[in-house]
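@channel sequence for tomorrow's demo:
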Amino acid sequence: MFKGKKIVVVFIGLIIASCAYKFTGGGDLPGGVKSVYVKTLENRTSETGIENFLTDDIIYEFTRSGKAVITDEENSEAVLTGIVSSLAIGTVSRHNSDTSSQRRVRLAVDLKLAGNDGMIMWAMKGISEDETYAVSPDKPATENNKREAIKILSKKLAEKVYNRLTDNF
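structure tokens (generated this afternoon):
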């Protein structure tokens, strides 16, 4: 009787293990690309420097994965270009009707991956993420909190971009 229960447990374990779950971003880049040049994103927001954070974080995601080599434009099989299209800030919570206690910053980008022949291999508009930050009575502290939230947001967005690029459906 005990041996029969063991077999059932092992069988259930095998069924669960064989389910087709996979992590997002586990595939290859479109067209089997192995070398990419990431151009500095164009910034269409009023937040200076955000394009540099995001470009650096996207490059980091490529480097971390090891699926493609980051190279110069002339030696790459594809070029990733994009636009930081919007940055919106809204109130999440308030102390009273005049004073915010938390705000949310939302960032959106439009990206495309094109082969060195100019043919678009992948494109996506409006990829976005958001992050909250604390509002302080001290304006410089609030600006610092916002800047830190944007840095966190940039990392989250870069990871999302990379996962979308490497999703194999």
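heads up for whoever presents: The helical segments are 2-17, 50-65, 139-165.
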